[in-house]
Structures are given as structure tokens and as C-alpha cells.
Amino acid sequence: MNPAMKTTVHATKLSSPSTDFGIRYAPTTVSAGTVPAGAIFPRTDPGNGIVCHGAPLSLEDSGVKYIRIQWVDFSNFVHCRVLTISHFHKLLRASRPGVAVTKAVLGIVFLTVTEGFSVSGEYLLVMDLTSMRMCGYASGHAAVFGYFQEKYPLGGRLDVPLCPRTNLRRIIKTEFLVGFETEFILLTSTRPSIQAANNHGWSRTAAFGSGTTALTVLEEIADALATSGIELQMFHSEGAPGQYEVVTGPLPPLEAADALAHTRETIYNIASKHGMRATFAPRLYTDSLGAHTHISVHPTTGDSPPSERHPSILTTHESRFLAGLMTHLNSVIAFTLPLPQSYARMKDGIWSGGTWACWGVEHREVPVRLTNSNSPQTRNFEVKTVDGTANPYLILAGLISAGIVGIRDQMELTVEGCGEQSAAELSEAERAEKGITRRLPLDVESARQYLQEDQKICEVIGEEVARKYVAVNKAVQQETESEDAAVARLVETY
């Protein structure tokens, strides 16, 4: 993979332009690739039948017959209501176009309502028309995400703090760009045993054999993402049997989370079309599946000056963001590694980030890798302690909350970057000298406890969000561990 293609930071004067490489992205230049507003409404005025020739092609002109209104719950299950295009246009005449959904919506785990979620009352899922994309995996369908709102003002507000999209939108206090590496495994069977589509090596051409179903699936995923307006930069094979990775371009956090949810849906559906099951379940084999998250920091008040301790590789904003991550990473891992099975990746020596809260320049054995450190145009943080079973909005709410605390509190970066050796290879005294003193949670129970005890993170992300997320997370654990065929249930769910 080419880290220069992942995401970038603002231009600074920390180094000579000759050190810059890769594609430059900035918050003002990236495009979400969603359906333009002018295309959502029909080109024919329903009042007089006159065709608006200057308008973009309408959804109907593009062959759209159905609109999926989607949301992602605390369990990372994607849900939808499918509207006919005619009913969709009727809803657009309302002041708040949307559909009613039970207030238990975010706490339903399979067929069980998690304790603390009300079975009484309804929310209104109001469509965010700026998020609409063509479904490249389903001809005639387009998808749009929404915000949960109260039907009637509650305490003078309509917003629902528990809504993952609403919460992420609220949290963003500075500009960020986010890109994702999405790893998955193609399976030809889940029961009675797990069977991968093939067995190849990392970045091997053998993974793309001409005439194979796997190659057809990858090509159709690429085409479908293009149809949906999502920038696919590259795809390649990974180390485990049937394992592949797609790399999508950077977007602002909310748009990036939407795009990741849509990317996963695309992968699931194209694989299903060809009789396969795509899974994001972590560590089915000796190699692990992750969802490495690349974040770049862009101050809203102009360029950030060089940091005092690392002037050649970090700006002040970046240094404070990283300091927040180092201090609070333990607490937000409950969002980014949500399942007991996720902690099979929490090991040293397997390139999944290791078990210590630390960072390093182009280092594969740290949870936060600073990539392209001397190239200000493309520098970003790669967070490795993330997998594909996590809710995209909660991933970014957690990671960005940690960084925002660092920026807000003007935290000093006291953890020194790892050099040639990983933190696990250092002695206790050597780790202490570098300020590496926090061991990451090694199981989901510890991760949940760190989250609940971190007042600063709960303050930013919302105490009710943290409390109810933990309740749902426990329910998911009970449901997925109670099955005799636990692995099959896991890959059939995620």
C-alpha cells in the first residue's frame, strides 16, 4: 500500500518542498461524491409539466426506483427503510422529510431490546439529502443517511444525542480529513466450516487470477464504488486466505463515516451476488482484519506553527492531537475494537499495533503510526487499533474526541516515538524513559471499564452515549458468544 495516497495535512513551512510527494488533499478540495442537490428533485415541474432543461439528470433519469433511508446502530448493524421514488418525492414536500422509527432503534441486538432503551415512542429519522449516493451494488437504488430527531421538541430541542451521526457532527471542533483501509475476507462457505475463496500471499498477483470469481468480485466492487462517487485509490491482497484490502480517499469525518458504511455495504453485496460471503470479522486466520484509520489535522485559523519538541515532523496542533490520543487511546478502544474477538488482534509482533500506547514514524508495531512525517502535504496519523466490526461514526467520535481533548487542553506530547525497536522489545526502564507507561486493554471488559472511567472522554462524547453503548456492547457479546457455531455466527453477522 502507498501511504502517500491515504490522506494529507495542510501545507506548512516545516521542510523543503522537495520532500513532499503524493497527492495533496485539503478540506476545501475534497468532494464527497454524493448526488448533487439539483438531481434529487425531478426535472419536470409537477405543477405544470415543464421540463427544467438546465437541471442535472434527476434520480428517475438515472434509473432510480427506490431510495434506501439508512442508519447504523450501536452494534454496527446497518438498517434501512426502502421507499419507492414516488413516495420519496412526496416526503420531500414535508418540512422534515423522514420516516418514524421506534425509540429502541439503537439498542436492538438481533431480536433483543437492550435494557435502558425505551419500547415506547418513536423518533423521526430525517433524511440528510447531502449524503445521498447511488447504490453501485443495486441497480435502481440510491441510499441516504439520516439524523434521528424527536417528533416533538423535548426540552426545547429536536436533536437526539444518542444518534451516532448527530453526535459526530456535534463533536467536530476543528477540520480533519479521514481515509480508511478496509480489509475483508471472501468466503465460499460459512457452515459447516469456514472456507476461504483462495489462499495467496500479501500483495501477490496470484490473488487476481484471470477468470477467477475473486477477481470479478474485486473489479465489480471497484466499479460499484465509482458509481457511488467514492474515491477508490487501490486494492490489493493481504496475508490471510481470501483476504483483500480496499483503500478509499480522504473526506471530512461525517462524510468519511458515511462512505465507509457504504463501502462495507458494497463489499457485502457484490460478494453475495457471486455466491460468496465477505466478512470483516477479526483474525479468522493467523493474519488479522483491520480498518486502519488515517486522520490528518487541519487548523481552522491558518497554519499551525511547528511543535516545540518535534518541529521537523509535527505542527503544534498535530502534537497536541497526538498527545490526546496517547492519553485517551485506552478509553476509546471500546468503540474501535468492540467485540471479544477483536482482541485476538491485540498482540505484539503481528503488525496490528502492539499492546502499548505509543507512536512512531513509519513504525508498523505501534497503535498510532505517523506516516510521511517529512512531507507536510501528505502527513497523517494511521490508527491501527480499529477493526471492521466497529460503527464508523463511533470510531471517529472516539478517536477525534481523544485528539480534541489534547488540542483543547493544549496537552504536551510526553511520549517519545518508538525507534527501531517496538515498545514490547524495550525493557521496562527503556519504556519509562520514553514515557510509554500505558498498556492497552487486552480484552473488551477492560476496554469498557477504561471508557466508563474516563471523565474527559465521556464529557466530549456524552455520558449517556458511553453508558448506553456499553450496555449494547455487553448484549452483543452475550448474543455472539452463546452460539454453538460462534465463528459462523460472527462471519454471518459482520
Question: What does the model show?
Answer:
This protein is α+β, with helices and mostly antiparallel strands. Helices cover 29% and strands 20% of the residues. The protein has 12 helices and 18 strands. Strands 10, 11, 12, 13, 14, 15, 16, 17 and 18 form a 9-stranded mixed sheet that branches. β8 and β9 form a beta hairpin. α3 runs parallel beside α7 and α6 packs across α9. It is globular. The N terminus is likely disordered.
In short:
The chain is an alpha+beta fold. It contains twelve helices and 18 strands.
Strand content: 15-25%
Q: What characteristic shape results from the CA principal axes? A: globular
Order of helices and strands: HEEHEEEEEEEHEEHEEHEEHEEEHHHHHH
**Mind telling me the C-alpha Rg?**
22 Å
Number of helices: 12
Can you give the mean pLDDT?
Answer: 89
Number of strands: 18
Largest sheet: 9 strands, mixed
Oligomer description: single chain
Helix content: 25-40%
Q: Please mark out the parts with pLDDT under 50 across 5 or more consecutive residues, or reply none.
A: 1-16, 50-55
SS content category: alpha+beta
Our measurement of the CA-to-CA distance between the termini, rounded to an integer number of angstroms, reads 24 Å
